[in-house]
């Protein structure tokens, strides 16, 4: 979505919040941290650090502000499987934001329940930490067009034994094209998450896509987006989700964000939502 005074495009949501993709591995439902060999993990670090260095050294430090974001949310559904699951999470995001780029790290805490037949179990703990960097590749032109890019690295910090992750890392890149028309912005997103293999499961890389429209007001923004990806489970449909959300400035130092999600395919969560408060420094 269109950059406002304090935020990068809202459509770039991939890897920003915990993603529940269930699979069965003689154990509980897992939040996929997905797999990566040691070589891929080293490449992922190089991939992200190059972007981080360019972002930090190409802009003066006084051009932006640090921020702390606290987010809470949930997802619920069976994702096209026989397992009914619900995920509740609280995330803390620390970042640095300028009019042209956003660098942040997110640490989530997860609480998950799942039910197979008459058996219900719960588990909780720290999720996978996510490092992200977003910035303009093409600044907004006189005609209102802009192009942003994002790099993301998911660290395998979730407890595999609790079913909160696979103990492996992911990394990915995303592009979002934006076209501003008066107070409206139309967006088109695509991305790729590089996924390795665990000892138990063989995953392919994930292609993600999305389209969206937003409406800007003096202190607020409303957006609607349709986002999808390839499935991690060959027996289920590709996930497709409709999002409706808002961004609102609460003065100079605070902002409020929220999102409601409705699954449009069997491979997605049935519904979900999140709300977050951002404090700028």
What is this entry, summarized?
The chain has one helix and 13 strands. It is mainly beta.
Largest sheet: 12 strands, antiparallel, barrel
Please give the CATH class. Mainly Beta
N/C terminus separation: 24 Å
Q: What percentage of the residues does DSSP assign to strands (E)? A: over 45%
Q: How many domains make up the coordinates? A: 1
How confident is the prediction overall: mean pLDDT? Answer: 79
Instruction: Give me the strand/helix succession.
Output: HEEEEEEEEEEEEE
Task: Write out the CATH superfamily name.
Answer: Autotransporter beta-domain
According to CATH, what is the topology? Lipocalin
Walk me through what this model shows.
The chain is mainly β. It has one domain (38-280): Autotransporter beta-domain (Lipocalin). Helices cover 7% and strands 52% of the residues. The protein is built from 1 helix and 13 strands. A 12-stranded antiparallel β-barrel has the order 1-2-3-5-6-7-8-9-10-11-12-13. The radius of gyration is 18 Å and the shape is globular. The chain starts with 37 loop residues before the first helix and ends with a strand.
Note the topology.
Elements: H1 38-57, E1 65-77, E2 84-97, E3 101-116, E4 119-126, E5 129-138, E6 145-155, E7 170-181, E8 184-194, E9 206-216, E10 220-229, E11 240-249, E12 254-263, E13 271-280
Antiparallel strand pairs: 1-2, 1-13, 2-3, 3-4, 3-5, 5-6, 6-7, 7-8, 8-9, 9-10, 10-11, 11-12, 12-13
């Amino acid at each position: 979505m269109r950059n406002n005074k304090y935020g990068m495009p809202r459509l770039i949501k991939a890897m920003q919040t915990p993603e529940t993709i269930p699979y069965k591995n003689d154990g509980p439902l897992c939040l996929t941290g997905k797999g990566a060999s040691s070589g891929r993990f080293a490449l992922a670090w190089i991939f992200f650090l190059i972007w981080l260095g360019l972002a930090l050294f190409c802009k003066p430090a006084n051009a932006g502000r640090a921020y702390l974001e606290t987010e809470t949310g949930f997802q619920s559904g069976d994702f096209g499987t026989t397992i009914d699951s619900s995920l509740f999470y609280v995330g803390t995001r620390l970042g640095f934001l300028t009019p042209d780029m956003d660098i942040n790290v997110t640490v989530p805490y997860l609480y998950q329940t799942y039910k197979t037949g008459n058996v219900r179990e719960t588990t909780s703990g720290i999720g996978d930490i996510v490092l992200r960097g977003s910035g303009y590749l093409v600044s907004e032109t006189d005609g209102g067009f802009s192009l942003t890019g994002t790099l993301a690295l998911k660290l395998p910090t979730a407890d595999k034994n609790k079913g909160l992750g696979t103990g492996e890392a992911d990394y990915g890149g995303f592009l979002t094209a934006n076209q501003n028309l008066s107070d409206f912005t139309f967006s088109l997103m695509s991305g790729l998450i590089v996924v390795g293999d665990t000892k138990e499961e063989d995953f392919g890389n994930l292609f993600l896509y999305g389209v969206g429209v937003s409406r800007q007001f003096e202190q607020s923004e409303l957006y609607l987006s349709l986002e999808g990806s390839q499935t991690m489970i060959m027996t289920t449909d590709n996930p497709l989700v409709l999002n409706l959300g808002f961004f609102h400035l609460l003065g100079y130092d605070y902002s409020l964000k929220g999102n409601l999600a409705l699954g449009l395919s069997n491979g997605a969560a049935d519904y979900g939502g999140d709300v977050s408060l951002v404090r700028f420094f």
